[in-house]
Specification:
With about 170 residues, this protein is α+β, with helices and mostly antiparallel strands. The chain has 2 domains: about 20-120, no CATH class; about 125-165, no CATH class. About 30% of the residues lie in helices and about 15% in strands. The protein is built from 4 helices and 6 strands, in the order βββαβββααα. The protein has helices at about 55-65, 115-120, 125-140, 150-165; strands at about 20, 25-30, 40, 85-90, 100, 110. A 6-stranded antiparallel β-sheet has the order 1-2-3-6-5-4, covered by helices on one side. The longest helix has 17 residues, at about 150-165. The chain is globular and about 50 Å long. The relative contact order is 0.14.
Length: about 170
């Protein structure tokens, strides 16, 4: 899905969101600058900002010296782009940060300060992927105990099919 250029309202506090243009990526990020400080990422945009090595200077500049209101995080959020209910889930296997995602258009909404917390979870995407693989192995490992000599190829096949499935979503 392409960058949404329409004006949208914040899914948390319903104030108008401000588009912050990121020239290096040629995309707009929507930030609730006059409300709760939440950030809305169109489909696949967040993965360009979730690691420490990725530049968020434009976002930090936009929110600098701003005071934000508290948003009710228990409320069901409605996607400001397509109007479907957003689904709450954890940002990683650590299950520490709950985010809102639209399964219809792929948009992601982060409450104020959640982007910084997500960036602090893992240094790299590879580290994040390894944690997921380790969790899967902890679940399926006992099932493969009798197949030790075939374990690497079986695990590779399982991981490949799981990651292929998730990548196509």
């Amino acid at each position: 899905m392409s960058d949404n250029l329409n004006e949208i309202n914040c899914p948390a506090c319903h104030n108008k969101m401000t588009k912050i243009y990121i020239p290096e990526l040629k995309i707009n990020i929507d930030i609730c600058l006059d409300g709760c400080g939440g950030i809305y990422f169109d489909n696949r945009e967040m993965n360009r900002f979730d690691e420490n090595k990725e530049d968020i200077s434009h976002i930090l500049e936009a929110i600098k010296d701003k005071k934000f209101i508290e948003a009710d995080e228990s409320e069901t959020r409605v996607c400001p782009v397509c109007g479907h209910n957003m689904v709450k889930h954890f940002s990683s296997d650590k299950q520490e940060i709950e985010i809102d995602e639209c399964y219809s258009c792929g948009g992601i909404f982060l409450d104020n300060k959640e982007l910084g917390k997500i960036r602090a979870e893992y240094e790299t995407e590879e580290e994040r992927d390894k944690a997921v693989r380790d969790d899967i192995l902890a679940v399926i490992g006992p099932e493969l105990e009798g197949l030790k000599e075939y374990r690497p190829s079986i695990l590779k096949s399982i991981f490949d099919s799981i990651f292929t499935k998730f990548a196509s979503m």
